[in-house]
Amino acid sequence: MKIQVIKGMRDILPPETAAWEAVENKARQIFKTYGFEEIRTPIVEEAGLFERSVGATSAIVEKEMYAFKDRKGLPLALRPEGTAPVVRAYVEAGFYAKDPVAKLYYFGPMFRYESPQKGRSRQFFQIGAELIGSDSPMADAEVLILLDHLFSELGLKDRRLEINSLGCVTCRPAYLTAIKKFLKGRINKFCPDCKRRSGKNPLRILDCKKEGCRGLSREAPLVHDFLCEACAQHYREVRGLLLAGHISFKENPRIVRGLDYYCRTAFEVISEGLGAQDAVAAGGRYDGLVKDLGGPDMAGVGFAIGVERLMLLLDRGPWTVDRGPGTTVFFALLGNEAQQKSLAAIQELRTKGNYVECGYGGSLKSQLRRADKLAAKFVVIIGENEIKKDMAIIKEMASGKQEEVLLGRLVEKLA
Ligand SMILES: [Zn+2]
Ligand SMILES: [Zn+2]
Predict the structure, then answer these.
(1) Closest ligand to 166 CA?
(2) Burial of residue 291, with CB atoms counted within 10 A of its CB: 0-12 exposed, 13-18 middle, 19 or more buried
(3) How far apart are CA 240 and CA 59, in angstroms?
(4) Ligand nearest to the CA of 263
(5) Of the bound ligands, which one is closest to the alpha carbon of residue 210?
(6) What pTM value is reported for the model?
(7) Which ligand is nearest to the CA of 228?
(8) N or C: which end of the chain has fewer CB within 10 A?
(9) 50 CB-contact burial (10 Å; exposed 0-12 / middle 13-18 / buried 19+)
(10) What spacing in Å lies between the alpha carbon of 62 and ligand 1's midpoint?
(11) For 67-199, where are the alpha helices, taking DSSP H only?
């Protein structure tokens, strides 16, 4: 019976994994310079966490979440995004009691039951960062500067940062009234999803991906025109700091993000290399979320990068594997005795940081072919003749030069 990977999920295979590792290493290195520390939360959470944070009427929770009951009937979900679990963990561990500001980053798989397409799979990886404990525009700016820094270091070209302000609990009611007024008499022209959501969450109409709805909502009032003085000031300061940090951006008043917890700053990083509506990174401010999840009234802002999409955009092929600074040595071994006699030397060379490979049987010719493929600098040949003399042949692959050495002096000779 042949079992295949399930629809919408994919294996990430070597040598592509080497490129993933390089991206992750770069991200870790940059996170550290901004004072972010790694957090690892479980992949499975109570389903209620996402209903309360992302929103029960959001497309993610309504249609895309992998929700199931465990053996005791507890409703669980595979995490569809990373912010809510991080905030849950932040509250649970009482981080706020130790330090008013927490800077956390994560790597890991997320799950959404969507139609699979290029750059969009049902299991997808995110690299995310959350700065919790400050409502200062400086926090928004720092998170965006960090994101820009990382993308620059990775060589991501043709990217564009788009930002918006979604207002707060003070100014949003007036906006909601305006958008409800706009929808009156027009709602029947929208798609069934928009219609259903229009009562509880009319903002989603701006977010609908259907062509018809996009056309209709072009005339809708924009939250930008309804910001209270505090939100307008916050937005002005964020833009000012981005300018001061030489981060180029475009204001896009149509960004709403499909998650309930966002307020004030919302942003997306768009790349021409992806389909029309796909962002390579997105995020924003979520000032009410910590309190909603049982913590104190703490603000927060963060982003998530879609790693599959990032990899599509980075021109990194052909993938190359970094073996480190040591020497690559291949042991062509003929027979069990040769294997036994060389094992100590192989271990010693590896301990010293060299990349050492060995043949697992077969002819000398086939083993040498493999050594060639692995770009070995030296090949050590031990056959029956060599065993008898307690010797080994060292062959330098580039020059073809060979020399016979005593087995006991092998490591010293190669080093
Ligand atoms: Zn406001
Ligand atoms: Zn719609």
Answers:
(1) 1
(2) middle
(3) 33
(4) 1
(5) 2
(6) 0.90
(7) 1
(8) N
(9) buried
(10) 28
(11) 83-92, 95-98, 137-154, 172-183, 192-197
Task: Give residue 194 CA to ligand 2 midpoint distance, Å.
Answer: 4
Range of the domain at 296: 16-171+227-313
Ligand 2 centre to CA of 220 (Å) is: 13
Asked whether residue 4 is assigned to any structural domain, the reply reads no
The angle subtended at Cα 51 by Cα 48 and Cα 56, nearest 5°, is: 145
| pLDDT score recorded for residue 276 | 59
Q: Kindly state whether residues 25 and 85 are assigned to the same domain.
A: yes
Q: Work out whether strand 328-333 and strand 355-358 pair parallel, antiparallel, or are unpaired.
A: parallel
Say yes or no: 366 and 259 in one domain: no
Do 306 and 336 fall within a single domain? no
Q: How far apart, in whole angstroms, are the C-alpha atoms of residue 356 and residue 371? A: 10
The answer to whether position 120 is within a domain reads yes
DSSP string covering 163-188 = EEE---TTTHHHHHHHHHHHHTTTGG
The answer, yes or no, to whether residue 317 has pLDDT greater than 70, is no
Q: What is the CA(222)–ligand 1 centre distance, in A?
A: 14
Lowest mean pLDDT among 1-10, 108-117, 190-199: 190-199
Tell me the CA–centroid distance for residue 193 and ligand 2, in Å. Answer: 6
Distance of CA 230 from the midpoint of ligand 1 (Å): 6
Query: In angstroms, rounded to a whole number, what is the distance separating the alpha carbons of residues 232 and 229?
Result: 5
